[in-house]
Amino acid sequence: MLDNQALTFGDLSVTVVVSPAPWHENCYIVRHRPSNTQLIVDPGGTVETILAEVEAGGSAAAAMLLTHGHFDHLGAAKPVQSALDLICHAHADEEPIISGASRLAAAWGREQIDNPEPVEYFQGEPTLRFGEITLRVVHTPGHTPGGVCYVFDGFALTGDTLFNQGIGRTDLAGGNGPKLMSSITRFLGGVSDDTVLFAGHGPEWTAGEAKRWWQWMAAQG
Predict the structure, then answer these.
(1) Phi and psi, residue 47, nearest 5°
(2) CB 210 within 8 A of CB 203
(3) Cα dist from 82 to 34, 47, 76, 209, whole Å
(4) Which of 42, 112, 137, 153 has the largest count of CB atoms under 10 Å?
(5) In degrees, to the nearest 5, what angle opens at C-alpha 135 toward C-alphas 144 and 195?
(6) Is-above-0.90 flag for pTM?
(7) Backbone angles phi, psi at 214, to 5 degrees
(8) For residue 188, what are the contacts with CB-CB under 8 A and spacing of at least 6?
(9) Which residue, among 66, 64, 210, has the nearest Cα to 143 in the 3D structure?
């Protein structure tokens, strides 16, 4: 999927805004086209580019969501919140990661970022509704404690839980390799093969492709 390209799934469209090097993080704008309801997911890139994409949709965004709280996924969150008067939504188990995002950014030599505020934390695996957009949360701990995948009708946003032929790292604070393996197996078991998976970095693929790759990975021992 190319930067600023939109793919459609019924009444919904998905547009990716890719952050500059070195992170090349995928921020997604999910838009309900009939109502112009928009969601911003993982705003890690350039503030002006994200705001321009939202403006191109014809209305302000309804909410911001995070798949997890690493700085490359929320670096633009606070200024985008301030510009659009948004609440940020994330899993409750991710609170310490989000709270520490600016410190982690500094440790990695990233310029100063402001952590998102306010953040509304949800528990478990709720179904969320924002205007005409409904999505299902799947809690996928392992990359981080409160990492999640957001499942829509026809597609899912997998953050850094699962990439196209890759998985998230588990060597940062809160990471857990066995939990991530279990989370991926469980997530893939709950989505249809034709579901398109949009990752936090890199290109999309289908759940069917992911399942075959995951089976091959398991066979490697």
Answers:
(1) -55, -50
(2) no
(3) 26, 11, 10, 39
(4) 42
(5) 85
(6) yes
(7) -65, -40
(8) 162, 207, 210, 211, 214
(9) 66
> Taking the mean position of all CA atoms in its chain, how far away is CA 98?
14
**pLDDT at residue 58, as a whole number:** 80
Q: What token pair was written down for 25?
A: 């993080």
Distance (Å, whole) CA 145 – CA 24: 23
For the chain (length 221 residues), average pLDDT per consecutive 10?
82 95 94 94 94 87 96 95 96 96 84 91 98 97 98 98 97 95 98 98 97 93 65
What single string gives the DSSP state of each residue in 107-131? HTTPPP----SSEEEE-SS-EEEET
Give me the half-sphere count of Cα atoms (radius 13 Å) on the Cβ side of residue 164.
12
What is the rounded distance in angstroms from the CA atom of residue 190 to the CA atom of residue 201? 22
Question: Residue 36 burial by CB count (10 A; 0-12/13-18/19+): exposed, middle or buried?
Answer: middle
Spatial neighbors of 88 by CB under 8 A, at least 6 apart, are 63, 64, 65, 66, 74, 77, 81, 116, 117, 118, 119, 120
